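Appendix B, Record 12. Input sequence as logged:
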Amino acid sequence: MENPSRPQAPGNPSPAAQAPGGQRNILSNDVHINGSVRFTNDLLVDGRIEGEITSDGALTVAENAHIKAEVKTKSVVIYGKVHGNIVCTERVEIKASAEMVGNVKAGTLSIEPGAIFVGKSEVGTPSAAPKKDNPAPQQQGNTKKPQGNESNKGVAQAS
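Logged structural output:
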């Protein structure tokens, strides 16, 4: 029989999602933290955190959780609400019940149908970094300014 006082994330994340040795830290739904949260292994949050979350481990945001923070971890699985930017060295998963408002930078990103994601994402690492030392070629020669309707080139106009 399950212990009702122990919060479980929907879909019960697989044992593989837990830290080695099965160590998982849990912040239950009656916990509200204002400030910085740092942890080593895995953290399951079912309460509220406002501020900053930093770790080399994995963060799971349960369905009842409300996170308003900048998050920097190895991986994040979101079932609840996160408002803030996320930077992960590995993976971000936004589940169907989740609401994510903020930018995401991660090695991989998974968004289930039904999830809410409002923000920008930067996923993966390019095989070759773009060259920044070569500025875009400047237009040479005739540089007349557009006059009249010439400034609307490429814009559809109704007649």
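The mean pLDDT is 80.
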